[in-house]
Write a structure and sequence with these properties.
The protein is α+β, with helices and mostly antiparallel strands. It contains six helices and eight strands. The chain starts with a helix and ends in a 7-residue tail after the last helix. The mean pLDDT is 94. Bound molecules: zinc ion.
């Protein structure tokens, strides 16, 4: 079992990697990891308003699933959707929220990502939904996000950004990068025309393949 200080350092490393990967810029976005040990059920989340490069492990905020912060820093303004995802999704041990440029471009058009490419199945279904807009930091936004994530591990947030979750911080970050890649390809295809969708029966085959191998498989 990973110790809390190591997990705090991994949250920082993931936030830095998110920006280095080009899926987020500046202080936007946030990263969290589930923290559960005897007598505590909650999560660690990046604080609000601090550059990731300036973060030390003690700056990461521990919060209970009741939304009570522990420590001196204020949590990310988006702590509500982190809390609600951990409370409702046993498969979520880490969450990456990014204002990824291509995913957010689609989200600004109120568009999710359809099954234009088989790798859409990496997010758990035959599309990545776009949650309706609500003001950042609100319970309404959290409610929309949890609904859009039903049966999925990623969603877009209208006029805002994207969320990816995973069993580990590495999984959540890798999924966020994959969703941004799909968003870019879909956006590029839209410059020429609306791409055809893979039929549900083919997506069922792909999803079954992913489930069989326990992890996303791809050609190559
Ligand atoms: Zn945001």
């Amino acid at each position: 079992m990973i110790d809390e200080r190591t997990l705090r350092a991994e949250v920082i490393a993931t936030a830095l990697a998110m920006n280095a990967a080009g899926i987020n810029r500046g202080k936007s976005g946030n990263v969290s990891a589930r923290l559960a040990h005897e007598g505590f059920a909650g999560f660690l989340v990046t604080p609000t308003g601090m550059p990731y490069a300036a973060l030390a492990p003690e700056d990461i905020v521990a919060m209970t699933l009741a939304g009570e912060p522990a420590g001196g820093r204020a949590p990310s303004s988006e702590w509500r959707f982190h809390r609600d995802i951990y409370a409702s999704r046993a498969d979520a041990n880490a969450i990456v929220h990014a204002h990824a440029p291509f995913a957010t471009t689609l989200a600004c058009l109120d568009r999710g990502i359809p099954a234009f490419h088989y790798m859409i199945a990496v997010a758990g279904g035959d599309d990545v939904r776009c949650a309706p807009y609500a003001t950042f930091g609100t319970q309404a936004l959290s409610d929309h996000a949890v609904a859009a994530l039903d049966g999925r591990k990623a969603c877009l947030l209208a006029h805002h950004g994207m969320i990816a979750l995973g069993g580990t911080l590495a999984d959540a970050l890798a999924l966020a990068v994959e969703v941004e890649t799909l968003a870019e390809m879909y956006w590029r295809a839209l410059q020429v025309g609306e791409p055809a969708r893979l039929p549900p029966e083919e997506m069922a085959v792909v999803l079954a393949q992913f489930a069989t191998y326990g992890q996303p498989v791809r050609c190559g």
